[in-house]
Fold each of these.
Amino acid sequence: MNDFTDGAWNFITTHVNLVLSDLGTHLVLSAESVAIAIVLGVPLGVWLGHIHRFSFLAINISNLGRALPSLAILAILLPYTGVGQLDVVIALVILAFPPILTNSYVAVEQVDADTVDAARGNGLTPLQVLTKVELPLALPLIFAGIRTSAVFVVATATLAGIFGGGGLGDIINNRESYGLNGIIAASYILIVLAFLVQIAFLGLEWLVTPPGLRVSRVKRSRRRGGAPGWPSPADLPDEHADRDRGEEGAASEDALAATRPRPGL
Amino acid sequence: MTGLFLAGGGGGGPVIPNFGGGTSKCVIDNGRFCWDWFTQNWSGTFEPALIQHIELTVIAVGIGFAISFLLAIAAHRARWLAPPVTFLGSLLYTIPSLAFFEIMVSITGINWFTVEIALVSYTLLILFTNTLAGLSGVSSEVLDAAHGMGMKPAQVLWKVELPLALPTIIAGLRVAVVTVVSLATVAAYIVPAGLGKPIFDAIGSGLFNTKFIAAGVLCVALALVGDGLFAGLQRVLTPWAAARRGAA
Amino acid sequence: MKSTKLFARTMGVGLAAALSVALAACSSSGAGGTGNTGAPAPGTSGAGAPSQSAAGLPSGKPGAGKPAIVMGDKNFAEEYILGELYSQALEAKGYKVTLKGNIGSSATIDKALTSGKIQMYPEYTGVIYTELAHLGDRPKSAQATYEGAKKWEEKRGFAVLNPTPFQDADGIATLKPFAQQHGLKTIGDLKKLGSFTYGGPPENKTRYQGVIGMKQAYGLTKVQFKPLSIGAQYQALDQHQVDTIAIFTTDGQLASGKYAVLKDTKGIFGYQQVVPVVKKSLIKSEGPAFSQILNAVSASLTTDAIVAMNKAVQIDQQDPGKVAHAFLQANGFLS
C-alpha cells in the first residue's frame, strides 16, 4: 500500500522534469482540441439555436458523440493521420465537439421567447438580439458544455500515450521504465488536473452568468441535490420539469443529460 | 557462436513451409482497408473479438447494475448513504482507465476478473445516481395514494416506485452500456479479449490498417446499437412523453 | 581452456539428458513400449544428426495428466510467434497450456513471472543479462551471455532452457537514402548528425540497450528520443517523422531493402538468443518430456526460420497461431 502514497510521491520528486514536460504536452494537446471544438461548435450551435432550426440534429448529436468509443476513434483515424499527435488531436476534437454544439444550441434556443420578443419590439435587429440578449443569457450553459468537454478531453488525452502522442499517458503506458509508482503518480496528477479544470470552468461560468441569474441557478442545483459538476439528478429527465416546460423542454433536458461528464480515459 | 544445442549444423536447417502465399497487394502495401483480408479473418479474429466485447460489457453492466440497485434502494431509505456512495463512485469514475487496469493487475492478476472489477467500478456512479434519482422522483401525491390504499413499504417499492423510476433507470443503463463498450477496448491491454485486441495487436505488429478500421468501426457500431436499443426502450417506457411528441 | 570445459559440460549434460529420457521412456504411462530410446541425446545432434527437428521429441502424449501450464509472451510479433510455437508443441504432446499473449515488455512480464501470474515465457539472453539482472559488465559472447543469464535466473528460482540458434538483437536503422546522404554505416557515424531523433519503444529511453548505451558507449549525447509502440517505428520512419528507429534484427520489414541497419561496433545491443524462462517447480512437476519438447522447438529456430515467420505475420498479416502451426507441422512437431 506504500506504493499509493510514498511510492507515487517519490516518483514525482525524482522525475520532476519528465512529469512537468509530459504535463505540459498533455495540457497543450487538450487545450488545442477544446479550442478547435469551440471554434467549430459554438458559432454553429448558437446560430442554429438563434434560427430555431435543425433541432433534432443539434440535440441528438451529443447522444451520438457520447456513445463514440474513444480508442476506436483513435484507431480508425490512425491509417489516415499516421502515428502521432495529429491522430490524437483530431480524435479529441471529434469527441469534444458534440457536447459543445448541443449546449450552444440549447442555450440560445431556450432563451425565453418573451424576452426575445420584447427585444425585437424595442427595435433591435436580429443580430443585435443575438449579441445583446440571447448570447449573454446563453453564456452560462455554453460554458457548461465547454466544461464538460474540457474535463473529458483532459481525461481521454491519456490514450495519446498509446498512439505516440505524448502527455501523461506516456508515463502510464510505460510500466517498463516507470513502474507502478509512475502509473499511480500520473493518475493522481490526472485526477487533480481534471478537478482543477472542473473548478476553473465552474469559476468561468459563474463569472459570465448575469448576476440576476446566479441566485436561481444555485437554488436549483441545491434543491435537486448532487455536487456541482458531477452528474447530478438535475441533469436527468425529470417528469415534473417535463410537464412544466413542455415537450421542447423535455427534449433539451435529454440533450443536456447527454452532455454529462464521462469517465476518465 | 550460436546455441549449445544446434539442430543439424550442415544439414540444411528446418523446413520452412509456405505460410499461405497469395497475399493480396492490398495487404502487402497496407492499403486503407483490405476487404478480402477482412472477410478471410472475420471468423478467426473479428467475430470472436466482437462476441467477447459483448460478453465483457454485459457482465460489467449486469454486475454494476445489481450493486448499484441494491445501494440505491438502501440509500432511498437511508438518505445519509447517498453522499458517501456518490463520492466513492465519482472517485472511481475519475481514475484513468489504463491506470486502473494496470493497478488492478498487480492485485488480482491478468484475467477477466481484474478487468471486470475495473469496468464495474466505472458503472457504479451513473447507475446508482440514476436509480436513486428515479426513486426519489416519484411524486409525493402518488406515494400518499399508495399508502392510503394500505400498501406496505415493500409493495410500494415494487409496485409503485420502481415502475415509475424505470425510465430514469433505463436512461442510466443506456449511458453505462455505452461507457463500458468504450472502456472495454482498453481492457485488451490486459487480457486478449474484446475489440481492443485487434487494435493492440496491430500496434505491436506493423500497424495493419485493416485491423484498425475494422475493429474501430465494429466497436462504434456496437456502441451505437447499444445506445439505440436503450433509447428505444426509454421511449417505450415513457408513453406520456411519446404522446406529447405525437401531439406536437 | 574454456572450450574443453564447455565440451565436458556439454557431454555431461547430454549424458544426463539421455539418461533422463531413457528413464522417462521406461516410466511414462501410455507412452508406448519403446519410448524414444532411439532418439539421439540433444548434446550430440550437432554432429550430423538429421536436420529435422523432430529429433529429440518424446513420442505419445507424455503431457497427459500433468498440471496445467500458464505461459506468457511479450508485446511484439516475434514473441507472439514464439509463444504459439512453444505452447502448440506442448499441447500436441498432451500438455494443457494457457497462453497469455501480449503481456508487455520485459520488466512487466518479468513481474508477472515472479508474482506467479505466469509460469514461463520466452526471453532474450542479453535482455536478461543487462536489463533485468542489471549485471554491469558487457559479456563478450553469446555463450557468456547465456551462462550469466542462466545463473541469475536460477538464483531467483527459474530455470533457463536451451537457447535458440537465432539471435534477435535490437538495432538502429535509417532509410537507405538518408544513410547514403549522411555517410552512415555504423551507429557511431550518427555523431555526424549532431542532434537527431530516435524512435523506439518507451523502455528504450532508460535502457543500456537503448538510449543509455547510445550516449555512454557511442557518445551520442544529442539524441532525442521519441516513444513509439513496437511496430509503429517503420511507418514513422517512412513518413519521415524520425531520423532513426529501433529495430529488431529479425524483423520482416528489413527484407524490403528500404532500410539501412547501422553496425553496432561497440556491441551495446548484446547477444540475444531466445530462451524459455521457466519456474523451477514446473520443470519438476511436468516431467522431463516438457523440457525436451521446448528444447527441440528452440533447436529448430534458425534465423531463416524466424525471419520467414516474422515476415508472414508482420508483412503478410497472417495469424501468429496459424504461422506457428504451419511451421510445427512441417517439421514433425505435431504428429
Amino acid sequence: MRALARKLAFYILAAVVAITIDFFIPRMMPGNALTAALGKLQNAQVTPALIKSLEVEYGLTGHQSAWDQYVQYWDHLLHGNMGVSTEFSQSVTSVIGGGIFWTLGMVGLATAISFVFGTVLGALVAWRRGSWLDNLLPAMTFFQAAPYFFIAILLIAGFATELHWFPALNGYDQTLVTPGLSGTYLANVIDHAILPALTIVLASAAGWIVGMRNVMISTMDEDYVLVAQAKGLPKRRVILYAARNAILPSVTGFSLAIGFVVSGALLTEIVFSYPGIGYILQQAVLNHDYPLIQGVFLIITFAVLGANLIADFVYVLLDPRTRQGG
Amino acid sequence: MAMTTPASDPTAVPVPDPVPVPARVRRIRFPRSPKIIIGLLLLGVFVVMAIFGSLIAPYDPSAHLNTTVGIPQPPSAKDWLGTTQTQEDIWSQLLVGARSTIVVSFVAGAIATVLSVVIGVSAGYFGGLVDDVLSTLINVALVLPALPLLIVLAGFLSSSASANDLLIAMIISVTGWAFGARVLRVQTLAMRSRDFVDSARIIGERTWRILAFEILPGLIPIVASSFLFTVIYAIGTYTSLAFLGLISTTHWSWGAMLFWAQESSAAQSREWWWFLPPGLAVALLGTSLALLNFGIDEFINPRLRVAGLSRKIARRTGVPRRFSLGVTPVAASDRAGAGRTHASAPLPTGTGAAQ
C-alpha cells in the first residue's frame, strides 16, 4: 500500500508539473506575438470583451504579477474553468467535452485490443520459437517503424478509395444519419471507427508483440517453468505460468508506451478528420486558439497520467511481491 | 544472405574459456547477423541520399515543371516518380528531403543520448538525493506525452525558425532522452556494486575515471541501442510535425511531402506515387535502424539469437529448432557475452515512436 501511496504522490507531482508547463505555454512566446494573435481575432466572431478578458488572463495589461496570474490560473482550473475558445466561441470545457467521447471510445478500445492481442501473440511467438511465427517479426518491424499517419493513409487508399469497404473521413455521415440512440446511427459510427481503430492496432501491436516475446523467452528459462513442465502439468498451464510472470514488464511498458499511442492516435484522428481530441488540437494550433491549446494539452496529459495509474494498480494486482512490503 | 556465425554445440558441456575472448574479436563477428547486414545496407542507401541527394536530383524540388497541367501526373520516363498537383518532381523532392529528415533525427538522437547518459549514469552511480531528484525528473519526463507538447511548441515557431534543422533537433531531443536515461540508470545501479568498480574505488580512482573507464564501456551496447531507438523516435516525431504543417512547408523533408499529399487528398484520388515514396522512405529508414537494434539486442541477450536462425542454418550448425525448456542454446560462440548481465528487452524497441 505504501508503494501505491508513493505512486499516487508521484502522479500528483507530475500533474502539477504539467499544469505549470501549461501555464507557461502561452507566456513562452514573445508578448507581442500573442497580442498580434489575439488582435487577429478581432474580425472573427469574438467580442472585444472576450479579447479584453484574454489579455487580462495572459497578463498583457500588466496589472498582475506573474505569481498572481499563476494563483488565479489554479483557481480557475480547480473550478473547472479553462477559459473560452477563441475559435469556437464557447467554453473550452464544452469544446473538449464534445470530442472526448469520440476519442475515448475509438482510441481506448483500439489500444485495449492492441495490448491484449499483441501480448497473447507475443507469448505464442516466444513459445513456438523457431516455427513460422518467427517470420512475423520482420513484418512487424516495418509496422513499428512506419508512422501512424502513413498507415492511416495506406488504409484510406486501400480500403476506402479502392475497395469502398469503409468510409474514409469523419466520425459519422452527417448527410445520412442524425446523432441519437438509433441503430442506423450507431452502425454508421462503428463503420467510421473501423479504419482509424485498425490503424492504431496495426501500428501499436508490434511493440507489444516484440516486448512480450523478448521477456517470455527469458522467462521460459526460469527454473519454475522447468519444474512445472517436469511435474507433468498440461502445456497450457505451463504457458500460463510463464506468461503471468512475463507480462509484468509489459504492464510497466504499457505506461511507457501509452504516451506514444496517444500521440499516434492524435495523428490518426487528424488524417481521418475524426472528431476527437486530436482533431480539436490541430484546429486549435492552426487557429492560434491558445485557451483551447492549453485545455487540450492538459486533458491529454491527465489521460496519460490516469492510464499510468491504472497500469500501476494492475501491476500490484498481478504481482504479489509488491503487496508484501507495505 | 547466409548467417556465417558459427554456433557452438549446445549439447556439449559448456567449458568455461580459460582465456576470455578479447573484445576486438567479438566486434569483428558482430556484424555477421543478417539483420545487421540488411540494416546497415538500407541505412547506407539513405545516408548516401542525404549527402548527395540534392546533387543528383534532376530538378529543383520546388520548380513547377509544367504550367498547363493541373493534376498530378503518374510516373513517366521524364518524372520517375510522377509529379505533384503543382507539377513538382516527386523524385527530386524525395532526394532533397532525405537530408533534412536524416540530419534532424540523427542530431536529435545524439543530443538526447548525451543527455540520457549524463542524467542516467549520474542517477545510478551517485545514488541518494541525486538519484531521487534525477529519477523523479526522468519519470516526470517519461509520463508527460511528448507529441502534444511538441505540437504546441512548434506552433509558436516562425516558419523561418522551423526550417532550422538544428533548432528542431534540439527541441525534439528535449522530449526524447528519458527512455535511455531510465535504462542506463538501472544498468549503472547493477554495475556500481560489481567487484571491479569497488576495487577501482578502493584504490582511489577519481570518480570521473571510474565513470569513463569502468562503467561506460559496459554500457556501450545499451547506449547504442538507446541512440538508435531515439533516432527512430526523432524520425517519427519530425515527420509528424512536418506532416501537420508545423514545420515550414517549403522546407523539403519527407514529412513536408506527406503534408502536401494530404493537403490535396492524394489518398482519396489514387495518387499513390505521391504519398507512397516519402512514407515508405520513412518506414524503411526506421526499419533499418530497428533491425540494427534487434542485432544489438541479440548481442546483449544471446538467447534471443536462436530465434533468428533459419531452418537450414539451424540444421547445419546443430542447434535444435525445437528444444526443451530450461536449456536455451546460445547460437554464437560468445561465452563472454553469455556471462554478462542480461539486460533483456532493455528498451521498448520503438513502440512506433511518436507517429
